[in-house]
Write a structure and sequence with these properties.
Radius of gyration: 14 Å
CATH architecture: 3-Layer(aba) Sandwich
Distance between the termini: 22 Å
Structural class: alpha+beta
CATH superfamily: Glutaredoxin
Number of strands: 6
Number of helices: 4
Strand content: 15-25%
Amino acid sequence: MTTAHDFSFNTIDGKLLSLSQFAGHPVLVVNVASKCGLTPQYEGLVQLYHDKREKGLVVLGVPSNQFMGQEPGTNEEIATFCSTTFGVDFPLTEKTDVKGDSAHPFYKWMKKELGEPADPLWNFHKLLFGKDGKAVAAFGPRTEPLAPEIAQAIDGAL
């Protein structure tokens, strides 16, 4: 049976990031963008990561330029923006397609597991998988990182 742990991304600085390294940790995967009206959600993602990482939560940001070109920068520019503007210290992947035929295989798998709610409609779509790598939940872009429904899902996965 396929799990999230069977997939890999490249980090924003070009290294291999195997999701299997997060076995035993729930992971909130968020497609992000620097020039979106929802970009301030980075603040909530950083707070969520800081509040829950001691318990095991990993937040993984996946920059994507598929929504109105709102992530136009290079990987280096994205990394600098995230760290200097929002203090992002959770892992980031390189710029990645998250929907359609060109979507990263992880996103295709999540959509297969959870159905349409897992198909990103916009930037800051959130996908949660559990310690065992199984798909848990999907949250739309307007659901704030610190929303009760996300906290409840994360606490259940911890």
